[in-house]
Amino acid sequence: MGKGTEHKDTALLYPWPKGLNPKDASAYAYNELLFENISPMAIWKVLIRARDWPTYYLNSHHVRLRDNDSGDLKLGTKFTWNTFGVKVTSEVKEFIPGKRMAWDGKIMFGTIYHSWTFYDLDNGSTLLVTEEAQNGVTPVIGNMIFPRKMKQGHQNWLESLKKKVESEAPPKDSM
């Protein structure tokens, strides 16, 4: 298994692209966060607004969507951005509103696959899981020098996304 964290086998539900299965990755991170009393769609609406990521996720810079003036991700959207100090060229490969979104990424001497999986819980809350698998020279070196950086960065993304969603959500008594 790739270095970084334990693997929860979401590959049973959503197959990973060839060469980027977390079990075989050079680097891998699994993160999850409970969004209490928040629906998957409330989170989804914020997460797909990629141009807004830098306003709440400080590890995201220069997000540029190609052929998409709305600023919202959708299936097939191609975009470039900087994260972890690296320029990434991505394309949305999975897009099931309120359920799952994933994109690939090309970086210098490496490839990535980043997924978001939404679990709608019976109590009105959502468990949001994000996973990223990386392969190539750059991920190997990065993981050796900063072994927890990707996991810490993704946890920060989840926590800052939660704050953003909570700031936009209607008061609980109006739901």
Provide an overview of this structure:
- Helix 1 packs across helix 4.
- With 175 residues, the protein is of the alpha+beta class.
- It has one domain (15-169): Alpha-D-Glucose-1,6-Bisphosphate, Chain A, domain 4 (2-Layer Sandwich), CATH 3.30.530.20.
- The protein is built from 4 helices and 7 strands.
- The longest helix has 20 residues, at 149-168.
- The chain has a 7-stranded antiparallel beta sheet with strand order 1-7-6-5-4-3-2.
- It has helices at residues 40-47, 53-56, 137-145, 149-168; strands at 27-35, 60-66, 78-83, 86-96, 100-107, 110-120, 126-136.
- The relative contact order is 0.23.
- The radius of gyration is 16 Å and the shape is globular.
- Structural class, by secondary structure, is alpha+beta
Detail the poorly predicted runs.
1-7
Radius of gyration: 16 Å
CATH topology description = Alpha-D-Glucose-1,6-Bisphosphate, Chain A, domain 4
- Give the ordered list of helices and strands: EHHEEEEEEHH
CATH class: Alpha Beta
Distance between the termini: 43 Å
Q: Biggest sheet: strands, sense, closure?
A: 7 strands, antiparallel
The CATH architecture assignment turns out to be 2-Layer Sandwich
User: Could you tell me the mean pLDDT?
Assistant: 88
Numbering strands along the chain, what is their spatial order in the largest sheet? 1-7-6-5-4-3-2
CATH homologous superfamily caption: START domain
The strand count comes to 7
> How many structural domains does the protein architecture include?
1
Output the number of helix runs. Answer: 4
Beta-strand share of residues: 35-45%
Task: Report the helical percentage.
Answer: 10-25%
Broad shape? globular
Protein name: SRPBCC domain-containing protein
Organism: Jimgerdemannia flammicorona
